[in-house]
Amino acid sequence: MNVTLKKNGIEATARTLGGELISYKKNGKEYVWTGDEKYWPGRAPALFPFVSSLVDGKTLIEGKECEIPTRHGFVRQSELSLIESSDTKVVFELRETSETLKNYPFKFSFKITHEISDSGFSTTFTVKNLDSRDMPFCVGGHPGFLLPEGIEAYKLVFEQNENCDIGHCDEKSRYCDEFVIEKRLEGKEWELKYADFDVDALFVKGVKSDKVSIVNKETNDVHLTFDYTGFKELVLWTAPGKQSPYLCLEPWNGLPPIIGESGKFEDKPYITMLKPGEEYSVGYKVEA
User: Fold this and answer.
1) For residue 80, what are the domain limits?
2) Please, how many CA atoms are within 13 Å of residue 229, restricted to the half-sphere of its CB?
3) pLDDT tens track for 216-251
4) Which of 20, 33, 22, 14 is nearest to 72 (CA)?
5) Do the Cβ atoms of 38 and 246 come closer than 8 Å?
6) Which of 37, 95, 96, 282 is least surrounded by CB atoms within 10 angstroms?
């Protein structure tokens, strides 16, 4: 089911499948990736209870081997319940099911809130532990942004001067500190080139900024500004080898499998541990 939000020349669409915001138009201009299957069928998936993948699709939770073979967890393929809706705000919720409990053995509430304003939109993830013991999880976003001229017409401009390596995974989606591309982020600007994504997703390692803008290289006009305050990692991605007209800015509290990791879910980097009854919220904002 789709839900439409409207405000002062702004129209957005969210859907119960995955709880995604699948469109944000301001004065008729679309900002969210359209999901063209030629390039990538996703739009803006929510990532929970882990980001990226698990080693061979498996992990250890409380000493038991659990298997979740899908990338980025199970929310993006789930049908969420609509629990609140107005002209400018929508809230979806996923609760545990008999299927999720088989391999993520916790009772939980996962809410996604989308809210539009005159200046853009926000997406917030709220996790609550409904179980009787501590609950570990990772969480992240995967929003894609439409860039009709192609990504090479743009550059990224960070709010602070940076001095960062740009990391990547190997062919098995494993990560380590040694996996970096030659091109670093030095200063505030990073030019977008398709060739940089031949290794797939890129990690801006140790980024200080909480905001980054997509800026037209020729005109210096800001296309949009992305605020990822509260997240530990910023991941950049466009499908390798496809000259795709979109860029994903992905805020993560979590990482892919680390080479040499213990295999225990609770040992994953940036894991959040909630006590019974506790609630945790994090989100991102887009100014456009």
Assistant:
1) 2-287
2) 6
3) 999 999 999 999 999 999 999 999 999 999 999 999
4) 20
5) no
6) 37
